[in-house]
């Protein structure tokens, strides 16, 4: 029974090594004034495809500064909601960036400044002067806004992440500037700056040979202790 217990313990130790998981994390940053596209280069998983359990894509988009000017040139008051900032998309022709529902993981992610304003009728200024002076004008001043998220790549696409070469993810940032109920309201925008990152995380298991050797080592150690 003692021998059986020793063998059982050794097998359990081997199973523990076999089930162990580790992560490989790569983070690439981008920055600029939208609209821009920045290529981010990542390494593929240089191991057995069967050992790659999961690929997670996470992201962050931060906008800084900028302003959105409104000037009501109509003869009636206007209640308007302004949005300005940037959106982020991540695309690749080398690998798939879709989750188990086949949706893009980083798709039109928006970091925005938002405000609602009640503008009086035109106070006598002209067209195309973009006068933000009240009561018929206003300015939405940009603040720092951040949007984050993540998603797992669909299992059927994991094979594309295995190899000895690299792949490119394009981080695409675009300006956003919109105004609801903008009849008669002219606008001007000072664009935001955008920065952020895309992170690719591999969840992997050890090579089968390493797990087997670890199990055999545990078994040998257990027998040596029993003999002693």
User: Terminal Cα separation, in Å?
Assistant: 17 Å
Strand order of the largest sheet: 1-11-3-8
- Enumerate how many helices there are, as a single number: 2
Q: Which radius of gyration do the C-alpha atoms yield?
A: 28 Å
SS strand fraction: over 45%
Low-confidence stretches: 1-18, 209-224
The H/E string reads HEEEEEEEEEEEH
Residues in helices, as a percent range: 10-25%
Shape: elongated
Largest sheet: 4 strands, antiparallel
Alpha-beta classification: alpha+beta
Mean pLDDT reading: 87
**Number of extended strands:** 11
List the helices and strands and how they pair.
Elements: H1 2-19, E1 22-32, E2 36-43, E3 52-64, E4 67-72, E5 78-91, E6 109-119, E7 137-141, E8 145-152, E9 166-179, E10 185-190, E11 193-204, H2 208-227
Antiparallel strand pairs: 1-11, 2-9, 3-8, 3-11, 4-7, 4-10, 5-6, 5-9
Helix pairs in contact: 1-2
Explain what the structure shows.
It is built from two helices and eleven strands. Strands 1-11-3-8 form a four-stranded antiparallel sheet, with no helix packed on it. Helices cover about 15% and strands about 45% of the residues. With about 230 residues, the chain is an alpha+beta fold.
